[in-house]
Specification:
The chain is α+β, with helices and mostly antiparallel strands and 277 residues long. Helices cover 34% and strands 23% of the residues.
Length: 277
């Protein structure tokens, strides 16, 4: 086997050595060459510095972007936490007011049964509420339902874990009331609209715009003294014997979120049995 020298590699190496020697000799003999090459070398060096600086800037930008993303996530988390805290404080204020309103002497021994509004019936959107308490929680039929501002209605259907509440605007609900100012009696009932009306009035009854009506305690369901609403409109047609009077409920029936349930006025408490419709 014949041994062959790497001719191309040896030739390239010798060429580089020769060029280096000639360049070194020429540089020593002629100072013009470095001066001619200097501008090009400076441009190359500037380009290299620019590339290096740009790469460093990219690294800084990436770090800034990551830091910005982290701060954005933290800010979003803090906003959600603040929103939740604000909602809890508002709910606590409503429940505190609700508890104070329902502290009636006749029911001081009754448990405080609270419920969340979880829905409305599509066919009676402004007349019925669905709450998250039922027979398993001690709810009984006809239990008065109140908000932090006054009477809401009463329980009309009791399920195992939910119940249906008829509002003051429900035509099937009737509440015996007294005018707090004049002590005139009337019955508040719904009429399939957003405002209930007064029925069974005496022709001599004294009612004025702004009068507050409270429950009278008659009827064995609603305890006495719960705010029901204020008179918002009085009309007396020429052919009518008694005026037509509308009532603005004390409770904002469109925005109720929490309610409290009371036992019916004459109900056995605690109940020996649970009633169903």
């Amino acid at each position: 086997m014949r041994f062959r020298l790497p001719g191309k590699e040896i030739g390239l190496a010798l060429g580089l050595i020769f060029f280096t020697a000639i360049f070194g000799w020429w540089s020593g003999r002629n100072a013009v060459l470095p001066d001619l090459l200097r501008p090009g070398l400076q441009v190359i060096q500037a380009s290299v510095n620019h590339v290096v600086g740009f790469a460093a800037s990219l690294g800084s930008f990436e770090r800034l972007r990551e830091e910005n993303d982290r701060l954005h996530r933290e800010l979003t988390s803090q906003r959600l936490a603040l929103s939740g805290l604000t909602e809890l404080r508002a709910q606590n204020a409503r429940l505190t007011s609700l508890a104070g309103l329902a502290a009636l002497p006749d029911f001081s021994a009754a448990p405080r049964l609270y419920a969340q509004v979880i829905g409305r019936t599509p066919d009676n959107w402004f007349q019925r509420l669905l709450i998250d308490k039922g027979r398993a929680d001690g709810v009984i039929l006809d239990s008065p339902v109140i908000s932090d501002r006054g009477l809401v209605g009463k329980v009309v259907t009791v399920g195992l874990n939910t119940s249906l509440v008829g509002l003051l605007t429900d035509p099937d609900i009737a509440v015996s009331c007294l005018n707090q100012r004049s002590r005139a009696a009337a019955t508040v009932s719904g009429q399939s609209s957003d405002l209930p009306v007064l029925r069974y009035l005496s022709p001599q009854a004294d009612f004025r715009i702004g009068d507050l009506l409270v429950t009278s305690g008659l009827g064995q369901i609603f305890p006495k003294g719960i705010p029901v609403g204020r008179i918002s409109r009085i009309e007396k047609p020429s052919h009518a014997i008694v005026p037509q009077i509308s009532l603005l409920p004390s409770s904002n029936l469109d925005r109720i979120e929490e309610v409290r349930l009371l036992p019916p006025q004459k109900a056995e408490w605690p109940p020996s049995r649970l009633e169903t419709p």
